[in-house]
Amino acid sequence: MVVDGTVLPALLHPEMGHIALQRLPGDTAPSTCRFHDNCAEGLTAGPAIAARFGASLDTFAPEAPEFLMIADYIGQLCCQLVLTLSPQRIVLGGGVCKAPGIIGAAQQAMVRHLGGYAPDAVARPDYLAAPGMGEDAGITGAALCAADHLPEGV
Ligand SMILES: [Zn+2]
Questions:
Q1: What CATH number is attached to the domain comprising 100?
Q2: Per residue of the chain (154 residues), what is the pLDDT tens digit?
Q3: Among candidates 32, 21, 138, which has minimal Cα distance to 78?
Q4: Which residues surround ligand 1, an ion (CB under 5 A)?
Q5: 41 Cα–ligand 1 center, Å
Q6: Does 19 map to a domain?
Q7: ∠ Cα 141 146 14 (to 5°)
Q8: Distance from the CA of 18 to the center of ligand 1, in angstroms?
Q9: What range defines the domain where residue 119 resides?
Q10: How remote is the CA of residue 72 from the centroid of ligand 1, in Å?
């Protein structure tokens, strides 16, 4: 969570990927998270998708049930973020979110899960977005966070 260009201070590093999701009916695939049976990480990360379907998400068509399941789970995660943090924008990085169409499908799922309980702003096409820095977003963000905590003069 970034506020006015600064990562929100916290007790631990916030790990929104461990937010609990509601499993879809009939979904009994094991979670790949060692802590939780139904968190976003355990249900939607690349290893979880590979274990669940035996293939990466980008091998499925956007209308495939496998694709829509993952879109629903990411949409649930984003719904929880909207309700908890009310962010101006949600940036979705990582390999799974590179699958063509996943961000748009997740946005539709997010809006559906919000059930009308949010401003129209969350439905705008760029509310969910890929990181502008592409592959370098994670490491660049980590370096900037570390730089914020260096003693003066270093
Ligand atoms: Zn977890």
A1: 3.30.420.40
A2: 778 877 777 787 778 899 999 999 999 999 999 999 999 999 999 999 999 999 999 999 999 999 999 999 999 999 999 999 999 999 998 889 999 999 999 999 999 999 999 888 898 989 999 988 777 777 877 787 777 777 877 7
A3: 21
A4: 18, 33, 35-36, 39, 41-42
A5: 6
A6: no
A7: 65
A8: 4
A9: 30-143
A10: 17
Q: Domain for residue 84, yes or no?
A: yes
Residue 14 domain flag: no
Domain membership flag for residue 86: yes
Q: Give pTM, 2 decimals.
A: 0.89
> What spacing in Å lies between the alpha carbon of 74 and ligand 1's midpoint?
14
Q: Distance (Å, rounded) from C-alpha 98 to C-alpha 92?
A: 9
Give distance in angstroms: CA of 123 to centre of ligand 1: 27
Q: Residue 35 corresponds to which tokens in the numbers above?
A: 């802590």
Ligand 1 centre distance from Cα of residue 47 (Å): 13
Per the structure, how many domains does the chain have? 1
- Closest by CA to 108, choosing from 137, 74, 143, 64, is 74
